[in-house]
Amino acid sequence: MGFNCGIVGLPNVGKSTLFNALTQSAAADAQNYPFCTIEPNTGRVVVPDETLLKLAAVDNSEKIIPTQLEIVDIAGLVKGASTGEGLGNKFLGNILETDAIIHVVRCFENDDIVHVNGKIDPIADIDTIETELMLADLESLEKQIKNLTKKAHGNDKDAIKLLADAEIIRTNLTNGTPARAVHDIDATPFNLLTAKPVIYVCNVDEASAATGNKFSSLVIEKYGATAPVLIISSKIEMEIAQITDPAERKMFLDDLGLKQSGLDQVIKTGYEILGLQTFYTVGPKEAHAWTITRGMTAPMAAGKIHTDFERGFIRAEIITPLDYIEYGGEVKVREAGKMRTVGRDYVMQPGDICHFLFNV
What we know:
By secondary structure, the chain is an alpha/beta fold. About 40% of the residues lie in helices and about 20% in strands.
């Protein structure tokens, strides 16, 4: 598994249409009325990986197992969601289970599709969602502060530190600053909605897919310095999803002046904001891509395959994809002296091909 993103936004901004396109399915009921998504829809898409395919070709691997992106389409939130308006707290809880948030913002005009607030105003829409998430975080944090205060009175050192951090985050939330923007404070222990990395997706009309428009420019101007802002047309993505031939898909994108699909943009950006990278295990039976966090050591990476690998880690043999492909597999790489043996302190590099040795 790679990572998990939750798609959020106001009703009728194109969330379910984008979900359908990104997951190349019709799982979400994308209709022109609020709250059409009654249960969160979940889809998984393969992360495109040319390196994995080339490595598998070297060994004629029987199975190819790429990493995956899981996408959850969460029902449209409205003002008052934190107090139960619309579909309320249930769907705020669904966001807590994701690694990152894809915040879809309506940046297109269409008289046939109603806007829940009666006008197209992407900045106001973002503020509405962000406010509801911060209000929900404040409610959660207040409960945690009460518990931490009791422990702190008993001279619990960990509780004293966490309490100080919680109070700083609470002050910032009260002043309209999400937890992710509070510097020098680790918000991870508090499991807050606004601590999650966010990707803003400006859902534009087809004509604006390559260049953006006045609405997307407003989002970039206000939020571009603090978070990734992607310009995607969900309608075009639906068309791309129907094209299975890679050459034909590239031609379609070229004709529209697009360098990559919305899915590719989301995957690349998701890896960047979550600090992820890929390593490989390759052989005749299986070529497998694994997702880890940047900075992980070899034993930690081994643990992604099996906990026993980490517990009994002895050493790892590392090959670069370039050498694996150039020399034609592990045996030839070993003969050429291009394989490295590393120990417990080795920090994994993007694209490492690994053979872990362990003893349990």
